[in-house]
Amino acid sequence: MNSQSCIKRGSRHDPGTDLQCFSACALLLQLLSLRIMKVSVAALSILMVMAFSSLTSSAPWSIITSPFCCYKYNKRIPRHLVQSYVETGSQCSKPAVVFITNNGKVCANPRDAWVRDYINYVKSRSNPTGK
């Protein structure tokens, strides 16, 4: 049976032909769904590879900047508590300097004089020769 005999409408034909046409259509739908599924799996695989490659390419950037954002600034803390610092990235709506202490992290306004002083203090401790 060819596909044209299933497509013709309005012509009289044997009821067995209807069953054959139905089976042929069901088979065609199964084949199409398998093809669509293969394309979907391929597309999903490509998207996953793109997502993972973008994560790995952004790894060095996340080391340089803070992995979180500050939503409010803390008050001044004693300078001797500061061990290191990191600046929040451009992905954050509020720029901040995050001071790392023994007790945790402290968000500070990078425009404040005391914050700039603490940054210079940390830099001088990590580079005592001044080079």
TrEMBL record:
Q: Where is the signal peptide?
A: none
Q: Name any one GO molecular function.
A: chemokine activity
Any Pfam family hit: IL8
Q: Does the keyword Membrane apply?
A: yes
Instruction: State the Gene Ontology BP annotations.
Output: antimicrobial humoral immune response mediated by antimicrobial peptide; chemokine-mediated signaling pathway; eosinophil chemotaxis; inflammatory response; positive regulation of cell migration
Domain of life, per the record? Eukaryota
**Cellular component, GO annotation:** extracellular space
Q: Which InterPro entries match?
A: Chemokine_b/g/d, Chemokine_CC_CS, Chemokine_IL8-like_dom, Interleukin_8-like_sf
Instruction: Write out the annotated subcellular location.
Output: Secreted
Q: Which regions span the lipid bilayer?
A: 41-64
Keyword field: Chemotaxis, Cytokine, Disulfide bond, Membrane, Secreted, Signal, Transmembrane, Transmembrane helix
Domain Chemokine interleukin-8-like per the UniProt entry, residue ranges: 66-122
The family classification in the record reads: Belongs to the intercrine beta (chemokine CC) family.
What is the name listed in the Swiss-Prot or TrEMBL entry for this protein? C-C motif chemokine
**Lineage of producing organism:** Eukaryota, Metazoa, Chordata, Craniata, Vertebrata
Give me the gene this protein comes from.
LOC116423764
